[in-house]
Amino acid sequence: MTAMRAASDRGAPAERAQAAAAAGPGRGEIRCSGLYKWYGQTAVLSGLDLTVANGEFVCVVGPSGCGKTTLLRMMAGLAEYDHGTITIGGEKVTAPLAQVAVVFQHFGLFPWKTVYNNVALPLRAAGLDKAEVRRRVAEAIALVGLEGVDDRYPAQLSGGMKQRVGLARTLALRPEVILLDEPFAAVDAQTREILQEELLGLWSRHRQTALFITHSIDEAITLADRVVVMGTKPGRVVDDIVVPIPRPRTVGSVRRHESYAPLRERIWEQLRASGSPT
User: pTM for the whole thing?
Assistant: First the structure.
């Protein structure tokens, strides 16, 4: 997968975000304004505002129960919000949008389908012709480095390979926006770092808007242009931090960068003040 690490824009994240904003919202801009969500009498989100520029990679961290996954599901059109608005590419989100794809922590693969058929499933559901399905599936499988295993079943794959299948299924749809809910939490530490670098390579190549939920401060700093820190009781944004580490990145280059330790400390202090991170 090393060959997948295509060179990306080396400009500072803030400069890239400003350029994206100047170019207009695009189909990938996410804008959340004054969001409120209650479960019974409990406020899960309270007055949350968040914007992700077209082509930007934003990680959201926060204590358990702060509403990170709820926020992602509302962006995906899979959960309702009680007040406020969410727009993607200027379109109000009231149901799932065609340009948005979601990658969950659990792989969501059908055990009775091969790798090929798992990746092909949403394309067939979208009504693409057989030739286009074959082309997109082959391309996506190659992108995630799974050539030669397309006839295997999920039970024959490692955790990391299963997550690559999930990514391939998402990439085959060619979305403008990818929402990722702790996609690497179920794999071991070494595989997790490998997948982080592979995701960086894929994102650098396609530059979709990405919003990535994680409990890991290190993962957030490694991946993101910006790290959004959420507090709890109720859920809200308590900090929004630009990551000034140039791209392309590796896990090692991020750890060695002079900004890494102060960034990590700042995020940790915000999480500690907002609730115990888990």
Answer: 0.85
